[in-house]
Amino acid sequence: MTCATTIERALLIVFAVFMLTVPWLIPALTNSFWVSVITEILIWSLFASSVNLLYGYVGLLSFGQALYFGFGMYGVGIGIDQWGLGFWPAFGLGITAAMAMALVSGVFAVRLTWHYFAIITIVFSLIFYFLAVTMKPLTGGDDGINFTLPPTFSFAGRQLSFTDPTFQYFFILATVGLCLWLMQRVTRSPLGMAFLAVRDNDVRASLIGLNVYMVRLTAFVMAGFLAGVAGALFALFGRYASASYMFYQVSGEAVVWAIVGGVGTLFGPLVGTTLFIVIREVVSTHWEHHSLIVGVMAILVVILAPRGIVGLWRDVLVHVTERGTVDACRADVCRRSLVRTAPARPPSSIWFQGSYPRTAAASSFSAARSPD
């Protein structure tokens, strides 16, 4: 285990402890409002992870992830408000609707690459955005749907629901953590290696037997799953679903969060989302043009750290730890070079007889000792 890995694991443990103590630690240090902000950060970071899965691991830049986010929201909202579903059926409906929509649109979208792929994802997002706006009796249009949440768990006459802020936070934390864990398992599996092969060179990937179309379609549906879970969680978090969240501008924000945080990394979207949402919450109360700060920071990160904040952190960490290792090795070499060693003894004739040529003096000495 390298020093860099040890440092990253230690930071991960500290981060996990912090996340598990947020409902009690944050109110003790500052306003409890920040607990809701951290909860929202978790949801949006999961949404940005769907962009990261496509762009960072498969090389497909999508500006249409808001479509599946919106389907996840409306699956929950319509299921509860109009169909009278319970918590879990509505939650499952939202995720299923998002994955189904990702499958339908992905069948056509993944046939394209580069800017053509980005354009067709925007087109799909706009089509269903305008449909959601015009189908006001079903979707509520821009006004959206407000609904009352049913209980999440009911046992022994006791109910647990999102009306309890602590339960709400831990439910969202567990769901987001589970999704990120599944994403990590997939990206480190043979399927994840196929993702990277297609990203690096789709022609060579096809030559070694990979079905590039199916690999991309699989990644597209998985990204739709992540966006759908995020949309369903956001609907449960806000008790609200609106067509405005299906607009491609929402997808653009997720792209910025993922790129600034670091695509191709597990925690890059979380870092980028945290940075920009905290800036929004802090600066917006004093200055309404806080988006300018976000834009300037995004430009600087893209120029100065193309691999994102997490990529920059890893580069610096590896450089520092490797430099310390190199310095230690140099010091050890210098110490060894200063130590004097005794002259080597000649090899014994018992073990090396016949291995070395016998000199004339040695031959004469042997002849003098031999009996007549």
How do the helices and strands line up, and which of them pair or pack?
Blueprint: H1 3-20, H2 22-29, H3 33-57, H4 65-81, H5 87-109, H6 114-134, H7 136-139, E1 145-146, E2 153-155, E3 158-160, H8 165-187, H9 190-200, H10 202-207, H11 212-238, E4 240-241, H12 248-261, H13 268-283, H14 290-304, H15 308-338, H16 349-352, H17 360-369
Helix pairs in contact: 2-3, 3-8, 3-11, 3-12, 3-13, 4-5, 4-11, 5-11, 8-11, 9-11, 12-13, 12-15, 13-14
* SSE arrangement, N to C: HHHHHHHEEEHHHHEHHHHHH
Structural class: mainly alpha
Q: Which percent range fits the helix content?
A: over 70%
Q: Any idea what the radius of gyration is? A: 31 Å
- Give the overall average pLDDT: 85
**Distance from first to last alpha carbon:** 69 Å
Would you state the CATH class?
Answer: Mainly Alpha
Q: Could you say how many structural domains there are in total?
A: 1
The name of the CATH architecture is Orthogonal Bundle
Number of helices: 17
Say how many strands there are.
4
Catalogue the unreliable spans.
347-372
Strand arrangement, largest sheet? 1-4
Strand content: under 5%
CATH topology: ABC transporter involved in vitamin B12 uptake, BtuC
Q: How can the largest sheet be summarized?
A: 2 strands, antiparallel
Which features would summarize this protein structure in a list?
about 375 residues; mainly alpha; disordered C terminus; ABC transporter involved in vitamin B12 uptake, BtuC
Please describe what this structure looks like.
There is one protein chain. The chain is mainly alpha-helical. The chain has a single domain (8-320), classed as ABC transporter involved in vitamin B12 uptake, BtuC (Orthogonal Bundle), CATH 1.10.3470. Helix content is 73%, strand content 3%. It contains 17 helices and 4 strands. The protein has helices at residues 3-20, 22-29, 33-57, 65-81, 87-109, 114-134, 136-139, 165-187, 190-200, 202-207, 212-238, 248-261, 268-283, 290-304, 308-338, 349-352, 360-369, and strands spanning 145-146, 153-155, 158-160, 240-241. The strands form 2 sheets. A two-stranded antiparallel ribbon has the order 1-4. A hairpin with a 2-residue loop joins strand 2 (153-155) and strand 3 (158-160). Helix 3 (33-57) packs across helix 12 (248-261). The longest helix has 31 residues, at 308-338. The chain is globular, with a radius of gyration of 31 Å. The chain starts with a helix and ends with a helix. The model is unreliable at 347-372 (pLDDT under 50).
